[in-house]
């Protein structure tokens, strides 16, 4: 046999071992690749739908996907390969580029959407199927809704790659059947601690669309700043950081529209009654309390806030509810989602000592407790919110049920966002009948591990370890980050948040959100802190962290997320590097253990 023929045979053999070089992220629920060989892709690949493409969202969605495909002519940056059988430079997918192409190239994307009118709201059907057949010129996409079809596009755009020349190909025919495990898949952006500009918000939404995350939880304000223009109270914006660092009503609507065009819901949060000073105090200083107190880490039993600057809405002052109602009503007209987040975390009792209204209320009846005070908030604020839009569901942080200052009775239709004590609190809330959004800080807080932000901190001013056997603030410890250490992508991806839950409890989990609190985040670092770690959550809540045999697939996810990070950057999302580039090019050479089953 000729040497060239042997090389040819070897090439084919390699191709059939590692079926394809690229796999989309999140991994689809079911994907099966064919074996008949690559298919060329015509340029442009045209959209054809079962209606007259009046649906702009679908048309624009495909336009964006095609623009990215054509501009990037993507070459997988980190291919999956068995340990020690890798190509040193996985450029231009050598196997597929040389293999014989199917005779019929792809020239069409045929989309069939069953229900064109389904609105983008909680629980909308996001499933799709995508088929590329050996003898067909069309990529066939079937979806129940436009939103499912958009997800199909972000899958398709990841599997059309460079043919090593000037053209494009799909490595093999493929059948994909896909739908999310959870309807609520989010990241939380905080624009109260630092301002985030619209272009940077759009960048986050681009990354979310590619990783099939469908909820932007927008923590709009905090005690530090109030960036939203409110027509009812134009003075609130005086507490924005500057005239430039504000969101007009039009800006907020643009974010909602940009997100919707990418199958992403925007759920606003106005954190109340705690974390409230900026904005509110401009309307009437008497509806906020303790804003002039020392937040006080010096004497912790007297602290009025968990971080500077202090401030809480006055729960007893009736004027509070008038202002809260008007602000809520106005924002309700801007944010179209049927869910709205009304905060309720970290109520600090000491703060209320500074309120005449509250101290008199306690004096009136000495049996009253801070739990009664929290109940007063629940009883007076929730009806105001619920009267604005009957069909709307409210979200609150779990503190209102599980912190020492919890209320006695919180309606069970309020969705609880769980951030403390991992599985314990998730278990408690779901056992009590609450629907839960998982945001456990030990797994999903993307801001953790960067040290403390409070200044004038003598704890850093230490030259040696007084007790080398004990981890402390500076030596072997978490370095002043209350929720340290840093949550790596593996920490996020490996989180089995339904561990030990009954089936009834599991049904109460609507999904998960990775928060990025912004004390140390602004435009400069937001993308590198969210990405690509948020994509690890994206896959966790879309198709899970286990294979069809129930085995954890983190080691297989490795090459997928390394490639995806390069793909995010190529698409303009400034994701942080996860490894030396060597590890991308040498699959599994950077694993901790050679044993590929070491993650259970
Ligand atoms: C607030 O009042 C309570 C009850 O009187 C008291 O125990 C606590 O020390 C006070 N806190 C501050 C910061 O003054
Ligand atoms: C949940 O936690 C609360 C407060 O710690 C406790 O009183 C309650 O018994 C717990 N409920 C369940 C079902 O675990
Ligand atoms: C799950 O339950 C088992 C058996 O009770 C226990 O040993 C384990 O610690 C629990 N896991 C978690 C994460 O709570």
The rounded distance between the terminal residues' Cα atoms is 46 Å
Rg (C-alpha, Å): 26 Å
Q: Number of domains in the coordinates?
A: 2
* Residue windows where pLDDT falls under 50 for at least 5 positions: 1-18, 88-92
The ligands bound in this entry are:
2-acetamido-2-deoxy-beta-D-glucopyranose
**Can you tell me the overall shape?**
globular
Number of strands: 18
Q: Mean pLDDT, as a whole number? A: 93
Contiguous helical run count: 19
User: Which class best fits the helix and strand makeup?
Assistant: alpha/beta
CATH T-level fold name of the largest domain: TIM Barrel
The profile of the biggest β sheet is: 8 strands, mixed
Which range does the strand content fall in? Answer: 15-25%
The helix content is: 25-40%
Which class of the largest domain in CATH terms? Alpha Beta
CATH superfamily of the largest domain: Glycosidases
CATH architecture of the largest domain: Alpha-Beta Barrel
Major β-sheet strand ordering: 1-8-4-5-3-2-7-6
Structural overview:
- The chain is an alpha/beta fold.
- The protein folds into two domains: 3-178, Chitobiase, domain 2 (2-Layer Sandwich); 184-453 and 473-524 and 531-542, TIM Barrel (Alpha-Beta Barrel), CATH 3.20.20.80.
- It contains 19 helices and 18 strands.
- The strands form three sheets. An eight-stranded mixed sheet has the order 1-8-4-5-3-2-7-6. An eight-stranded parallel barrel has the order 9-10-11-14-15-16-17-18, surrounded by four helices.
- Strand 9, helix 5 and strand 10 form a beta-alpha-beta unit.
- Helix 5 (198-210) packs parallel to helix 6 (249-260).
- It is globular, with a radius of gyration of 26 Å.
- The chain starts with a helix and ends in a 15-residue tail after the last helix.
- The relative contact order is 0.12.
- One 2-acetamido-2-deoxy-beta-D-glucopyranose binds next to loops.
- The site of one 2-acetamido-2-deoxy-beta-D-glucopyranose has 3 residues, from loops.
- InterPro entries: Beta_hexosaminidase_sua/sub (IPR025705), GH (IPR017853), Glyco_hydro_20_cat (IPR015883), Hex-like_dom2 (IPR029018), HEX_eukaryotic_N (IPR029019).
